[in-house]
Amino acid sequence: MKLNHIIAAAALAFASCTASATVLDSRLHADDSFVAYLSTSDTELGMAFSSGSQWDLASLGQATLAAGQDYFLHIVANNVGAMAGVLGEFELTDSTHMFVNGAQRLLTNTEDWLGNNTGFDGNYVELGDYGFNGSEPWYYRDDTSTDAKWIWAGYNEWSDVAYFSTKIIAEGAQTDAPPDMPSDLPTDMPSDVPSEVPEPASIALLGLGLTGLLAARRRRRN
Question: Rounded to an integer, what distance in angstroms lies between the CA atom of residue 159 and that of residue 77?
């Protein structure tokens, strides 16, 4: 019976941790195919969590984010002819993470995404804007926001592969030192500074002990 209780408690704890984790949900179209990755590095692919090869049907994906960890959402898209494009929307289930736009929802656009035709190497180019969901030649795609835009890196009739990237920021994550932090702080404490300062409660206990000791000595003398 005790073992069953332990197992049940462990399962409940696991379920609670899972429920509190941030989940990334994605809905993506790519003319003609794509693979989406979640990475902790802006230069590495990371873990693939979604893919698709039918541009007219939205491919759904989902990935779990660890608390306090920044991420990069990477997309590698391929085209096999004519016009190319990527269209999609992404959501985070809670406020422990946010996209670069400061919200828990992000659409494909030319402001919040970086891209190029060479890979995740930091040498990004201006993204091409090919219109909102509903624009020709793709027209309206199922259940995807009409505010999402078809985008591509470079000119979409010349480049058959495109790399897209955007950052997901963890709540409370600090990647840079505070701006007011002085850079010339001493690394060693002065020799006349005690390494530990007694807590007020410890000092009070010490005082009570000395008082009791003096009282006992007075009783002995009497």
Answer: 10
**pLDDT tens-digit map of 19-28:** 468 999 999 9
> What CA–CA distance (Å, rounded) separates 114 from 97?
19
Tell if the pTM clears 0.90, that is, is over it.
no
Which H or E run contains 137?
A: none
Neighbours of 94 (CB within 10 A): 13
What whole-number distance in Å separates Cα of residue 87 and Cα of residue 69? 26
- Count other Cβ atoms within 10 Å, centred on residue 61: 19
Residue 81 to residues 131, 153, 158, Cα–Cα distance (Å)? 19, 15, 9
Rounded CA-CA distance 161/80 in Å is: 9
d(CA 50, CA 174): 29
Instruction: Tell me the C-alpha to C-alpha distance, in Å, between residue 73 and each of 47, 76, 89.
Output: 10, 10, 12
Q: Quick one: the chain helix, strand, coil %, rounded to 5?
A: 20, 35, 45
For 51-88, write each residue's pLDDT tens digit: 999 999 999 999 999 999 999 999 999 999 889 999 99
> Cα separation of 147 and 134, whole Å?
10
Mean pLDDT by 10 residues, the chain (222 residues): 46 45 97 97 96 96 97 97 95 97 98 96 90 96 95 92 97 51 35 38 47 56 51
